[in-house]
Amino acid sequence: MKFLSDIRLLLIAIWLGAALFFIAVAQSAFAVLPQRELAGLVVNRTLAVLNFAGLGIFVLALLMSFVRGSAINRYVLWAERILLLIAGVACAVGQFVFGFWIALKRAEIGRPIDELAVDDPLRIQFNMLHEYSVWTLMVAMAAALLAYFVIANRVGRTKKISPADPYNFEKEFKI
Predict the structure, then answer these.
(1) Per-residue H/E/C for 110-126
(2) What does 32-86 look like in DSSP terms, one character per residue?
(3) How many CB atoms lie within 10 A of CB 107?
(4) Which DSSP category does 167 fall into?
(5) How many C-beta neighbours within 10 Å does residue 15 have?
(6) Which sequence spans correspond to the domains of the chain?
(7) Averaged pLDDT of the chain
(8) Residues near 137 by beta carbon (within 8 Å), at least 6 away in sequence
(9) Cβ pair 15, 144 in contact under 8 A
(10) Does residue 161 register a pLDDT over 90?
(11) pLDDT tens by residue, 102-124
(12) CA max distance for the chain
């Protein structure tokens, strides 16, 4: 089903573009906004949108992978499904686990994080959770990128060109 593969490629590409744009927004927010706490709120809200969108996109792409043609290598198909599952789970863990823990830690701190000393245990825990959240997003992006290339490679291999096709230039360029 080339059409469904193209739709999955489009959805994954849109999410990857949004994830890359999110990185730029996060850096810009901390550079432009007058208080780091405000920048953190903007980044937190934008990351929630990215994680929920990723969760929906990867679940939809995973479900669409079960509608397939007969000429598909099942090992490649299962590799694609596993990568989509990893990306979706990473989005869910980033939002529902690390996002929740970071929100609890912010509530426990009760004031801007920059007011805490660098060696304060609460700030160390917050920084650790933030680092885990960043790594989780990177895992989702890497799995999505790999899934994109697996799907794109498979779509390119299953394309059959008719020998009578006037735009088939393969035989002219073979050495």
Answers:
(1) CCCHHHCCCCCHHHHHH
(2) HSSSHHHHHHHHHHHHHHHHHHHHHHHHHHHHHTTS--TT--HHHHHHHHHHHHH
(3) 8
(4) T
(5) 24
(6) 2-157
(7) 88
(8) 19, 47, 50, 90, 94
(9) yes
(10) no
(11) 999 989 988 888 888 888 899 89
(12) 74
